[in-house]
Amino acid sequence: MNDLLETVIEAHGGLERWRQLDAVSARLVQGGALWALKRQPGVLDDVFARASLHQERESHHPFGAPDRRSAFAPQRVAIETTAGDVVDVLDQPRASFAGHTLETPWTTLQLAYFVGTAMWTYLTQPFTFALPGFKTTELDPWQENGEQWRRLRVTWPDHLATHSTEQTLYVGADGLFRRHDYDVEIAGTAGAHYISDYTKVAGIMVPAKHRVYPRSPDGQALSEPLVVSIDVSEIAFT
Q1: Percent of the chain scored above 90 by pLDDT?
Q2: Which CATH architecture has domain 3-237?
Q3: Of 4, 117, 143, 203, whose CB neighbour count within 10 A is largest?
């Protein structure tokens, strides 16, 4: 690990503590323009997410109905009943987004894939960056909001699903993330994702507020529209 990644991981609770834990769950209250644009309004307004910490698995409940949940893995996404019966399934889900633009509607299974990979990314970083296959480098610092932020460029391995192979995270003086830049490859967009309101749960620092805005080609965040908002509460580790 490079120096900045070590600093970030320690600030978030450290690998030793992370490896003692197995899963995280949280309540998500979500908004923003994306859901209606994708013709999936209301599905994710108030849900619970559960993510495995050491393999890429994630689920949202309820998902479209009180007795439904999503089940995400990189190569397969499904809608299940809460009893575990499969209602619908899509193998190799990322291929189904070929040719999509920001305005292309999503099916329910495509929505489940997007939110599965997104929330697994958010709930497990920065600890995942220490796994084999990840590459990290430090970029030049960035000035924003009267602060100077260090920047960590992360290259993801091919076997994990996430927004884009290359992502950049902005780190405050306390070692915690302030911003997360990525390209949403399956939607043809670029996001500037602001992260704040950290809380410590089971020794791990978890951000409770997420706000995503469009990002211009020069790296500046646009003030509108608000693409996605996520407020996180009732966080629990097992």
Answers
A1: 97
A2: Clam (2.50)
A3: 117
